[in-house]
RNA sequence: UGGCCUAUGGUGUAACUGGCAACACAUUGGUUUUUGGUACCAAAGAGUCUAGGUUCGAUCCCUAGUGGGCCAACCA
């Protein structure tokens, strides 16, 4: 197989460069470092996909490291959920590790740093420290404890560790530079006292290391080669390196690899929020049923909704990796799940909004079991039998008493196919007192060969199985609910994001098991929800099918709008465009461009052209095109004026021969 | 009154580090079809934020401007 040379993203470029500069391939090592304080969401899958994807690409180990340095927020429940979600996505970590595993090493290094005069104990209030820290635009000032003696620092720090102080009394900070333009370098905090129970270390510790001190050193201990994180950590890099370089002095023999932190832009999805804190609020306020509510952008939510690991991995691949802020349209995610399910999901029939259809010339007591293909995309999927009888349900939207011939479905007097069954013809309707259609009467023919425009799905009323179908709409009505300074994201919650439908499904579905995915033909993809029981089927609508009919429908109302004729671009614009590349293209194309410009020039007025006389000297191509166009205008009777003469004479002095030649021609 | 990052069709990402701006989604036509699905074919859509500079040649390198983002938690 010829490996297709896929273009590399900027991180892969960095790795390739390191490799060519002598980094041995077997030294490559990555990590995914979640804090166990919430559930993983679709945004995390980007980070997961990048690090684990790199691991797969280079056959390098990827550690799963729980960044568990804040016992106030972290729980075992989240650890378990995160592991389950990553496994479900199909990734394997080399080692399951915890930052808390390194508490003792970190502590010893911190003591070394104190001994080297690189860290000190500060005993002020957090307010006082914030004061001294300055602002992004104003430098900070040194605090009163900054020059404590090493011995005092050592003593205080040990007593902090021993639990002699309350929270907030003392902290340990690195001694860097209170005037540094990067605020993170203004003597950042390394340790704080926290008398909390930790989900792994219990009550062993009452001082806990901060992120910056822990994260880079954990990377270093694990000998991670490339530490990838999102853009907001860019300012942390200076500190990451500062700590790393100092610790390297203590451990370079046993730990020779110095990790590199590199940052990429995180994923944003339209109509979605990605903040753990805000997702937690949706759960706590009961807006959704839990972290795994099918409307949630969490991995567990997507899983329950019916998304496949494959579809999510493809999505992440397509999203790409770069450094600029981005908003991905949800339609890409939907495309990815349809793409996957189209190939794999068995087709079945279900009617969500039923109306009874009676085939008057079909015997009342007759029933037939007709063969139905399970998946036209998969020849190995086989077929099943579905029952047919005189009375079936069809979708209410599939019938109109009369309609234009754009309507391919059932109407009175015309024919349509019942999928996998017969061709029927609409004869008449029965309505109740309110004029609501209660029955559609039709006749059938066994000639199934003939061509008809439409095909309907159906379920035999006698054999139909009741099922609950949950149809979801986006959770937020705003494209970026997160991004309004003046409004809370909760204001944009869509009140109608869940619709519960009593539906009829074909009997083959009675034994459908939780998690199984189907295509309800002509409707969309559905999976069996966790709430389903042997007595009550429950389906989630994962995503609808693409529906080009739905797009046609709203048209009649807007028909009156004057048809905007395909606006042709003004000739002068096209000329500018041709000109821009003029000097870069091969001669043959140049001639073609010139011919085109000559033709277009006929449609150009002097007023259009005049502004181009001021084109920057550098833009020779545009000037040539302008010159050619000017030639046409002059030929057609345009009189010479000062502007024209100045433009031509300036061109005559140019270095570019083409331009000079065109100018001479005038 | 600062520092850092960033700017390419509607969206996202490319362009082998300077050589006719490509791919995917979305859009619009068409063909096939017992799913108005799928598949296939085609079209349209940017000349790369602006102004300078270097160069035979700039999306790419340099400078300045402008727009967007991040940075002042004993959070990660």
Features:
666 residues, alpha/beta, 7-stranded mixed beta sheet, 27 strands, 33% helix, RNA-binding
Task: Indicate the topology.
Blueprint: H1 10-20, E1 30-32, H2 42-58, E2 62-66, H3 76-89, E3 96-98, H4 103-115, E4 119-122, H5 126-133, H6 150-161, E5 171-174, E6 189-193, E7 207-209, H7 211-221, E8 226-230, H8 237-251, E9 260-264, H9 276-284, H10 299-305, H11 309-319, H12 330-344, E10 347-348, E11 350-351, E12 354-359, E13 367-373, E14 383-389, E15 391-395, E16 399-400, E17 410-411, E18 415-418, E19 423-431, E20 437-445, E21 455-456, E22 459-460, E23 465-472, E24 498-505, E25 517-520, E26 524-528, E27 537-544, H13 548-552, H14 555-558, H15 571-582, H16 587-601, H17 606-609, H18 620-635, H19 642-652, H20 657-665
Parallel strand pairs: 1-2, 2-3, 8-9, 10-25, 12-20, 16-17, 18-21, 23-27
Antiparallel strand pairs: 4-5, 5-6, 6-7, 11-24, 12-15, 13-14, 15-22, 18-19, 19-20, 23-24, 25-26, 26-27
The structure holds one RNA strand of 76 nucleotides.
Structure notes:
This protein is an alpha/beta fold and about 675 residues long. Helix content is about 35%, strand content about 20%. It has 20 helices and 27 strands. The strands form seven sheets. Strands 10-25-26-27-23-24-11 form a seven-stranded mixed β-sheet. Strand 1, helix 2 (about 40-60) and strand 2 (about 60-65) form a beta-alpha-beta unit. The longest helix is centred in the first third of the chain and has 17 residues, at about 40-60. The protein is flat. The chain starts with 9 loop residues before the first helix and ends with a helix. Mean pLDDT is about 90; it is low at about 555-570. It binds one RNA strand of 76 nucleotides through helix 5, strand 6, helix 7, helix 12 and strand 21.
């Amino acid at each position: 197989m010829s490996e297709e040379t896929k273009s590399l993203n900027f991180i892969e470029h960095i790795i390739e460069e390191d490799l060519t500069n002598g980094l041995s391939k077997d030294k490559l090592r990555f990590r995914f470092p979640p804090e166990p304080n919430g559930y993983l969401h679709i945004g995390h899958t980007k980070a997961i996909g990048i690090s684990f994807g790199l691991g797969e690409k280079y056959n390098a180990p990827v550690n799963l490291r729980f960044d568990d340095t804040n016992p106030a927020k972290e729980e075992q429940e989240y650890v378990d959920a995160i592991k389950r979600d990553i496994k479900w996505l199909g990734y394997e970590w080399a080692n399951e590790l915890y930052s808390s595993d390194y508490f003792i090493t970190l502590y010893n290094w911190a003591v070394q740093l104190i001994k080297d005069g690189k860290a000190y104990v500060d005993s002020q209030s957090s307010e006082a420290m914030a004061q001294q820290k300055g602002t992004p635009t104003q430098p900070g000032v040194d605090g009163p404890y900054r020059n404590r003696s090493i011995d005092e620092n050592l003593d205080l720090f040990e007593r902090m560790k021993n639990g002699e102080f309350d929270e907030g009394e003392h902290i340990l900070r690195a001694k860097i530079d209170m005037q540094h333009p990067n605020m993170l370098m203004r003597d950042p905090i390394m340790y704080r006292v926290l008398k909390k129970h930790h989900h792994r270390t219990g009550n062993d510790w009452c001082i806990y290391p901060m992120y910056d001190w822990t994260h880079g050193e954990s990377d270093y201990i694990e000998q991670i080669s490339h530490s990838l994180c999102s853009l907001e950590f860019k300012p942390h890099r200076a500190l990451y390196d500062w700590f790393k370089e100092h610790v390297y002095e203590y451990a370079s023999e046993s730990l020779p690899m110095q990790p590199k932190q590199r940052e990429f832009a995180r994923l944003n999805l339209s109509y979605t929020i990605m903040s753990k804190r805000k997702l937690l609020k949706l759960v706590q306020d009961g807006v959704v049923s839990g972290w795994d509510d099918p409307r949630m952008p969490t991995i567990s939510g997507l899983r329950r909704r019916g998304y496949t690991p494959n579809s999510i991995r493809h999505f992440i691949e397509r999203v790409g990796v770069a450094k600029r802020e981005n908003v991905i349209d949800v339609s890409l995610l939907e495309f990815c799940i349809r793409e996957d399910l189209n190939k794999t999901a068995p087709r079945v029939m279900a009617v969500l909004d039923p109306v009874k259809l009676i085939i008057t010339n079909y015997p009342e007591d007759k029933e037939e079991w007709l063969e139905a293909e399970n998946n036209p995309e998969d020849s190995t999927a086989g077929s099943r039998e579905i029952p047919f009888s005189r009375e079936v349900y069809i979708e209410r939207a599939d019938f109109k008493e009369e309609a234009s011939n754009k309507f391919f479905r059932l109407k009175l007097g015309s024919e349509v196919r019942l999928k996998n069954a017969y061709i029927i013809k609409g004869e008449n309707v029965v309505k109740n007192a309110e004029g609501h259609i209660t029955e559609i009467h039709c006749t059938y023919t066994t000639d199934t060969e003939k061509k008809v425009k439409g095909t309907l799905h159906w379920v035999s009323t006698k054999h139909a199985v009741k099922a609950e179908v949950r149809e979801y709409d986006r959770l937020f009505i705003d494209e970026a609910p997160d991004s309004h300074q003046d409004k809370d994201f909760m204001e944009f919650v869509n009140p109608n994001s869940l619709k519960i439908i009593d539906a009829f499904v074909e009997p083959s579905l009675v034994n459908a098991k939780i998690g199984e995915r189907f295509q309800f033909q002509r409707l969309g993809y559905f999976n069996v929800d966790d709430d389903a029981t042997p007595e009550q089927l429950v389906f989630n609508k994962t995503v609808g099918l693409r529906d080009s009919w739905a797009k046609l429908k709203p048209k009649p109302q807007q028909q009156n709008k004057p048809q905007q004729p395909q606006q042709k671009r003004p000739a002068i614009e096209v000329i500018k465009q041709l000109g821009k590349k003029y000097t870069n293209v091969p001669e043959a194309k140049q001639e073609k461009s010139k011919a085109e410009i000559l033709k277009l020039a006929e449609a150009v007025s002097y007023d259009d052209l005049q502004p181009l006389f001021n084109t920057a000297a550098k833009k020779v191509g545009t000037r040539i095109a302008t010159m050619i166009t000017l030639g046409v205008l002059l030929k057609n009777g345009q009189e010479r004026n000062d502007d024209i003469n100045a433009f031509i004479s300036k061109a005559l002095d140019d270095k570019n021969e083409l331009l000079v030649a065109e100018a001479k021609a005038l």
